[in-house]
Write a structure and sequence with these properties.
The structure is a homodimer. Chain A is α/β, with parallel strands linked by helices. The first copy, chain A, folds into 3 domains: about 100 residues, Sandwich (Immunoglobulin-like); about 240 residues, Glycosidases (TIM Barrel, Alpha-Beta Barrel), CATH 3.20.20; about 100 residues, Immunoglobulin-like (Sandwich), CATH 2.60.40.3950. In chain A, strand 5 and strand 6 form a beta hairpin. In chain A, helix 9 runs parallel beside helix 11. Chain A is globular, with a radius of gyration of 25 Å. Chain A starts with 8 loop residues before the first strand and ends with a strand. Chains A and B meet through helix 8 of A and helix 7 and helix 9 of B.
Chain lengths: ~525, ~525
């Protein structure tokens, strides 16, 4: 946590030491980085049940009078913490409020230095259907999933981090609670609550050690440039621990607690649930309520979504920043994938498009070719796909659940795709003529990606939808073999003329020669305009 | 209007004749049919501007104290009308309210006889994604479009009605205002406002004759069993009349007036607009407002939708009863079409899937085969398609705009499809395994329609998704040639066994023989269970 967590100043005050408390207001400000984490640590009561008895928050105000109301939390051992992530550099003064006199009306400041190199801030929605870091750097989510990787033995968790470090993925879907499912029968090292495994829990008393571990892993992902898409609830419990069947009160208390702890980490996203509709004890109104609890607790407005089983949540809910969709079928073809953009008017993340692997379940045995194909279909639809992998293993370590090593052939090809995207226009790729040419995405007049998928043509007639085009403009074409990861430039540029109301073609009617194999794409870039 | 409009009792009262008014309360009740129209006609002021000066409504109450607040309207010549459509038979007492003493506090009754044969009531949403008439009779919308048919010369309008009578269509999209567009340059016979064509209108004074004509046409459609999907606003004006650029106040006044007049006709649906987003003077918030005006004015909650150009409206708006979608691309393939069901959780009507025809515009030159294909794709997606036709004609009478005669080859095939649907389960056809087999719809365990589209297989391996199936059950199969309109039964029934976690197949592995041609479908019906 060295780089990410800033110097935390602990104000060791006697619970009733008011004079000392006043003196402490003069102490040096907590120092941290913009979008980093500054911690205010206060000493408070250990008796009763501090998790439910004590309320604590602080109002932070900068010199422009921007104000954030930041929830605190009990971290055990009389330690009360307010974790603050300054959205702008400069001094942020705070004043606490609490129902406990020792924690009430404490003041101080957090001094936020400008963000250092590599700290681009949190990811936010940009240009309607895309994302960027807060400093404007483009962010193109290309994620994977290791649901229960933080519930594994230390060595396996470390291996997962090493694998991720060498992978193309910049987002990870991960559950807070452990997972009970086929190939997932081990107990975790730590539990979120005080009590006795497997199912005697005191849902009013959290286990700070569990959350400290989770936080450490999230910060390690942050160092790797990976967004943690934190799945707050999930149905994979099978009546074992009961974390999927807590009362409304317990759910809300849990959400407020975890949001207070995790929201300050700039790489945290909230995924209310995986397959929310498979948690049969909850109604849709419960999810509406819980989404509101997260939204109201989180001072930073971290990206928020909810992932479906068979029933899509209503992603038009304005508290949701993007649509997180499980639908392998929609990712099979851009003409399907693109439709969700119109329906939700938000970034579309296909967080589950089935898995590369070899398990018997039909959702877990895509070929690597099919997985890569779906990635490209989603990208040319102006949406973002998510990877997953389910290869059977003697040690029951399947990437999808526990992490470990990636065994499949798709990640290398996904890396090739991400490299293409890194050179594409920053604002994100948009469908050019959404209901007419579902396989063309780009920036009209400037840049096009054309994906030919399972077809094996020996040529592609150069033609582009009319938008932002003028006769005489010149385009460079590169043929991308998305499976063999090659980029082959076409020697001669193409000069366009208008052929019809809708299309521009090469002035001499030229086509792009192709190798007659599947998985080809074209990258078309404007290189010149007529004099 | 003989059958549809009931005996209307005109209470010819002096504007200030209070005693006479009281006496009139004793007059015989207005008689009509359940779901028919009973008219209360009152004499009132002719001076000033009755369209804006006079407010009039009546509260109707039945013997169970069900209450409806029904708006009245000025019909010209001192004639004030309250048009009431009783949702249940029996006596409905009314009391008027008005800002004009002569029209205020008038009482009386409408006596509603039970609905006669052929009167099934208005169409309402049923089973989430489907429709039925109010009496429970299934209604499967198979519509067509003649945008400006009521703005044509009498003879052409009559011809359109004759064509419709012989067609398979039970819904018609039609504009209130005339249309200005290619092949649509004639002035209408009547205008909705007082003033001078083409663009000097008094938007505070309606022309009752225009609305009387429109109502007559709607009632004629009703007699043919055709729902009138009334398009309240549209962008096809080209600066000619200005009906697309009225002020908010004028729009709202118009909506309240037309809803007061038309809502009582049981075959009226409200389509707020065609291509709403092409009316560039209006913001989306204007549409929200206008949808609310219609909803609040209409005592009968007629079906309500709004149709898009390029930007889909947010059909999750609870005031909208169904999604009215223009998207030819989505109708090309069931795996696309089905996605809107999840997003909107309402009936999905593809009210525009491009047109059979031969005009140069790419939206107006589908082959008949492609139109029929799209109909089947929509149907097997659990959605409803809409027909349209654009064949060039020396007289500029294209069905799409003016009506007249149907020239295409798709309507006969659409009739074949509707006959299949009439024998299918009443509750509507549902996708069986929505994201896995987009070409299978039906009622799990009982009835299946499988559409094979452009493929030309010589056999189809009998296999059905597992839901509601048991080993040993027997199914009859019929091969439907959707283009040649033939139904060919397979002689031997199929007996099923479970082959995998997901599928049942024929116990002997039999396939259904097919003719190796495109446009084939299979109708599979359970005929027996194991003893």
């Amino acid at each position: 946590m060295k780089n990410a967590l800033c110097l935390s100043v602990c104000l060791w005050l006697a619970a009733c030491g008011h004079a000392l408390g006043a003196e402490s207001q003069e102490s040096a400000p907590v120092e941290c980085e913009q979008w980093g984490v500054g911690e205010i640590v206060l000493d408070g009561p250990r008796d009763g049940n501090p998790f439910v008895d004590v309320e604590l928050a602080a109002d932070f105000t900068d010199r422009q009078n921007k104000r954030l109301h930041v929830p605190g939390f009990y971290d055990g051992d009389g330690r009360y913490v307010i974790r603050f992530s300054p959205p702008t550099p400069g001094e942020w003064k705070y004043r606490t409020s609490s129902n406990t006199p020792a924690l009430h009306d404490r003041t101080g400041a957090v001094a936020a230095a400008p963000a250092k190199e590599g700290n681009h801030g949190p990811v936010v929605v940009k240009n309607g259907f895309h994302f960027a870091y807060a400093d404007g750097t483009p962010y193109r989510p290309i994620g994977t999933t290791c649901y229960a990787w933080t519930s594994q033995p230390e060595a396996l968790e470390e291996e997962t981090l090493q694998t991720l470090a060498a992978s193309p993925f910049n987002k990870l879907r991960m559950c807070v609670f452990p997972k009970r499912y086929k190939w997932n029968e081990n107990e975790p090292q730590l539990y979120a609550y005080e009590g006795k495994a497997p199912n005697q829990w005191d849902f009013t008393r959290f286990n700070p050690e569990f959350f400290q571990h989770l936080e450490r892993r999230i910060v390690e992902l942050q160092k790797l440039g990976i967004e943690a898409d934190v799945i707050l609830l999930h149905p994979y419990d099978e009546g074992h621990w009961g974390f999927d069947q807590m009362s409304d009160e317990a759910d809300d208390r849990y959400l407020r607690y975890i949001v207070a702890r995790l929201a300050p980490y700039r790489n945290v996203w909230w995924s209310l649930a995986n397959e929310y509709d498979f948690m049969l004890e909850k109604q849709e109104s419960d999810w509406d309520r819980m989404i509101a609890v997260v939204d109201q607790t989180d001072p930073y407005d971290r990206l928020t979504s909810i992932h479906n089983g068979r029933v899509l949540y209503n992603h038009t809910n304005p508290r949701l920043t993007h649509a997180s969709i499980q639908n392998g079928s929609a990712a099979e073809e851009a003409g399907r994938a693109v439709l969700y953009r119109d329906a939700y008017r938000k970034p579309i993340l296909f967080d589950e498009i089935k898995y590369e692997g070899n398990i018997p379940s039909r959702w877990g045995n895509l070929s690597a070719e099919e997985m890569v194909h779906r990635f490209w279909e989603c990208i040319v639809a102006g949406t973002y796909p998510g990877h997953g992998e389910c290869y059977l293993s003697d040690d029951d370590v399947l990437w999808w659940a526990k992490g470990g090593k990636l065994k499949g052939e798709s990640p290398a090809r996904i890396k090739f795709l991400t490299e293409i995207l890194e050179t594409a226009p920053e604002q994100g790729l948009e469908p050019i003529d959404k209901w007419q040419y579902p396989n063309i995405v780009g920036k009209p007049g400037e840049y096009y990606l054309v994906y030919l998928g399972k077809e094996s043509p020996s040529e592609w007639k150069f033609s582009l939808p009319r938008y932002e085009l003028k006769e005489g403009e010149q385009f460079r074409v590169e043929v991308l073999d998305t499976w063999n990861m090659t980029i082959t430039p076409v020697a001669e540029p193409f000069t366009i003329r208008q052929e019809s109301e809708y299309l521009f073609v090469d002035k001499d009617g030229r086509s792009v020669p192709l190798p007659g194999k599947p998985w080809q794409a074209l990258q078309i870039t404007k290189i010149g305009s007529p004099q």
